[in-house]
Amino acid sequence: MRTSRLVATLGPAFLLACATTRPQATDVSLAARVQGPGLLFEVLYSKADERELARIESGLLAVGPRLSRWGSFREGVWIRVFPDHESLERAVDRRGYPWLRAWAYGDQVLLQSPRSWNASEPIEEELNELLTHELTHVLMYQLLQPEDEPVLDAVIEEPPLWFREGMASVTAGQGHRRLSSEDLSHWLAAHPGADLLHPKAELYRTEKEAVYGAAHRAFDLLVRICGDQGVRDVLRGVRTGARFADAFKAATGRSLSDFEQQTIRTGFAALPISASGAGGP
Ligand SMILES: [Zn+2]
Q1: 184 CB contacts (<8 Å, ≥6 apart)?
Q2: What is d(CA 271, CA 77) in angstroms, rounded to the nearest whole number?
Q3: How far is the CA of 278 from the centre of ligand 1 (A)?
Q4: What is the rounded CA–CA span in Å between residue 163 and residue 142?
Q5: Is the model's pLDDT at 41 over the cut of 90?
Q6: Segment (H or E) for 32
Q7: Max mean pLDDT range (14-23, 35-44, 153-162)
Q8: Is 268 left (phi over 0), alpha (psi -120 to 50) or beta?
């Protein structure tokens, strides 16, 4: 049985990540509540994934310290476990993404069961990283939501892909999986005209390494320039009604497009704006 608090706090559907239909819960028959300081999850899974529950639970409880740098969840989060990759792709209405293992919305994470990953490394480590990554997305969406009243999804502007994926990747400590700045510069030289920071769907699908690498390095650069506080300020700006680009400018002191262009131009090594104004011999 689901608890009334989770149901009550979840409230109306909050779908920001994309406009796909809600996943069907046809294969799901079991539920487990996972609760820690500032964390409330309801894991929905099928009988076949009963033995996965313990490691999912421990991965969920481990995310707290990493995510707290950005803020706290305002609502409980559903974790829906899908038995295989095919059922995950069906649920998110996307085909041909063999590397995809999870998908996040403002109130839920859809997770391909680790049982079906065929992972080569210790699965706990990878699962913990993935859960931290996905739950960073969830937290970001919740932190963008206006405080007073729920608004229609269309009203809330989604941050650029590099910011969303970079924030999740950096928070989950996934730099060791991402292309280096040097690799990215080579990639960019070999793909003139490709917009890695705002990739089209096909570029995202087929060049995942470059897209996630660029997102990670760009967000990492942003944090080096303006700190965690700058990122929190950007989110707060949007939450209180500003457009993303305006919130970015107010929080970081530079325009979003300048930051993006400079990031690419300097090979992900842009200097802080203050360094350009106080030079001397
Ligand atoms: Zn992501």
Answers
A1: 196, 210, 213, 214, 217, 267, 268
A2: 38
A3: 38
A4: 15
A5: yes
A6: strand 30-36
A7: 35-44
A8: left
Cα(135) to centroid of ligand 1, in Å?
A: 9
- Average of pLDDT values for 134-142? 97
Bridge partners of residue 34, in order along the sequence:
41
**Residue whose C-alpha is closest to residue 41's, from 98, 99, 109:** 109
pTM over 0.70: yes
Query: For residues 188 and 190, what is the distance between their CA atoms, to the nearest angstrom?
Result: 5
Q: Taking the domains of the chain in order of start, what are their residue ranges?
A: 4-144, 157-271
Tell me, in angstroms, the distance from the centre of ligand 1 to residue 166's CA.
Answer: 8
CATH 1.20.58 fits 4-144, yes or no: no
> Who's near 154: CB < 8 A, 6+ residues apart?
none
| Residue 281 CA to ligand 1 centre (angstroms) | 44
Phi-psi region of 253 (alpha: psi -120 to 50; beta: other; left: phi over 0): left
Can you give the length of the chain in residues? 281
Closest CA to 256 of 228, 222, 224: 222
Burial group, residue 222, by CB count within 10 angstroms (0-12, 13-18, 19+)? buried
- Express each pLDDT in 226-268 by its tens digit: 999 999 999 999 999 999 999 999 999 999 999 999 999 999 9
